[in-house]
Design goal:
Elements lengths: L1 H18 L1 E5 L2 E4 L3 H8 L1 H31 L5 H11 L6 H11 L6 H8 L10 H29 L3 H10 L3 H12 L1 H16 L3 H6 L11 H11 L3 H31 L1
Antiparallel strand pairs: 1-2
Amino acid sequence: MALVAFSAVIPLMTVVNYSVQDIFGPGQRYFIGVDWFREALRDPEVHGAFLRQLAFSGIVLAIEIPLGVAVALLLPKAGWKSSLAIVILALPLLIPFNVVGTIWQVYARPEIGFLGRVLNDIGIDFNYTGDAVSAWATIVLMDVWHWTPLVALLAFAGLRSIPDAYYQAARIDGAGRLAVFRFIELPKMKSVLTIAVLLRFMDSFMIYTEPFVVTGGGPGSATTFLSIRLVNMAVGQFDLGPAAAFSLMYFLVILLISYVFYTILQRASAS
């Protein structure tokens, strides 16, 4: 209880306390109720950041879940090749977030980065520092490279848990590869895919370090997600009251959408 209070409850209650006060300095704070919450709900920059965050999470989920399942299906099932493939696949997951951002910041540079230089050499105008489409493409590719292995490993674990008797029965019935995937493998992977969707949604909806390192939220506000907007408000402008209210709303949105995702996926698994 003491550990939980120290790590979660006390910091959260501090944020709740700040969210209902106007703070001018040490000893200078005034209770203002829910004014900061109203201000956050009316802020057009918050609206834009929220839509960008939803779009980013939707894009990476649409790419990473099918791609991760496809990679899991291609992995060797057993032996040293399987172990080697899993180790290589897991390497991006071991890299710290800020290092991932730095890697892709250099890799996508139009002047010196391999990706940026190749794309420009073949006639594609690619510059993530000045073009919003290039910035989005860079961040999405970075996230797919970083987190698809997690989905693949979870899907692979689900595949390995399927008893051989199912495959033997499918061979006896003359089922093709597509039928085996549709009626045996996919239903057996529903539980791990539910976990994968929830984990990837929560991670992608809270992403901060990687896009901040690569683009800083730019060009303009093209990649200013909710997390970057929140940090700019709290650290850049030092508006602790509005930032506290915004962070509580951010937390509740993640909690609500995760609950909706979980409920839908559970009902789909039950059916």
